[in-house]
Design a protein that fits this description.
By secondary structure, the protein is mostly beta strands. It has 1 helix and 11 strands, in the order H-E-E-E-E-E-E-E-E-E-E-E.
Length: about 160
C-alpha cells in the first residue's frame, strides 16, 4: 500500500512540476522558465525575465526581442547612477560560452511597451528572442503573481520614472 501511495504522490509531483516548468532551446542555448510579473489591467508596460544557459564553446548575444502583445519591445538593464538604480535600454545582452545570463528584476530584462493586451495571472504570451548566432526562438512567458520571485533571483529597487 505504501508503494502505491508513493508512486501516486511521485506521479502527481512530476505532473505538477511539468505543468509549471517550461523551457526552450535555440541551438546550444537553453532558456529556462520565461516569466513576467502580473501588472494592473490598465498597465501599458510589462517586463519579461528568464535565465539563458549557453552550452556552446562560443559566446552569443541576445540582440532583440518582440511580442505581438506590445507595440515596442526593448532590452534593458539596471545601472547605478547618482546613487539610484535606473533602467536603461541596451543594444545587446551577452551570453558567455559555457555560462549563463540571468534576466531578472534589478538586472537585465525585456521591457514591453504600449501593451495591446494585458495578460492576466496564469496566462502566457509569446515573445520572440533574437540571438546573434542561435537565431530566433519563440518562448511562452508565464504571468506570475506580482510577489513571485524564483529562489535564485533577488529584486532590487527599480526606477522606472523615465517612461
Amino acid at each position: 500500500m505504501k508503494t502505491i501511495k508513493s508512486i501516486l504522490l511521485g506521479s502527481l509531483f512530476a505532473l505538477t512540476s511539468a505543468a509549471y516548468a517550461h523551457d526552450f532551446k535555440a541551438g546550444d542555448l537553453h532558456i529556462d522558465h520565461p516569466w513576467s510579473k502580473q501588472v494592473p489591467p490598465t498597465s501599458q508596460v510589462a517586463a519579461a525575465f528568464f535565465n539563458v544557459m549557453n552550452h556552446s564553446d562560443s559566446s552569443d548575444e541576445l540582440i532583440s526581442a518582440s511580442s505581438p502583445i506590445a507595440e515596442k519591445t526593448e532590452l534593458h538593464a539596471h545601472m547605478h547612477e547618482d546613487g539610484m538604480m535606473k533602467m536603461r535600454e541596451v543594444e545587446k545582452i551577452d551570453i558567455p560560452a559555457h555560462d549563463s545570463q540571468a534576466l531578472k528584476p534589478g538586472g537585465y530584462h525585456i521591457m514591453l511597451f504600449n501593451l495591446k493586451e494585458v495578460p492576466q495571472l496564469g496566462d502566457s504570451f509569446p515573445v520572440t528572442l533574437n540571438f546573434k548566432h542561435a537565431g530566433a526562438v519563440e518562448v511562452e512567458v508565464k504571468v506570475e503573481e506580482a510577489t513571485y520571485m524564483p529562489e535564485n533571483m533577488k529584486e532590487e529597487k527599480m526606477d522606472h520614472s523615465h517612461h
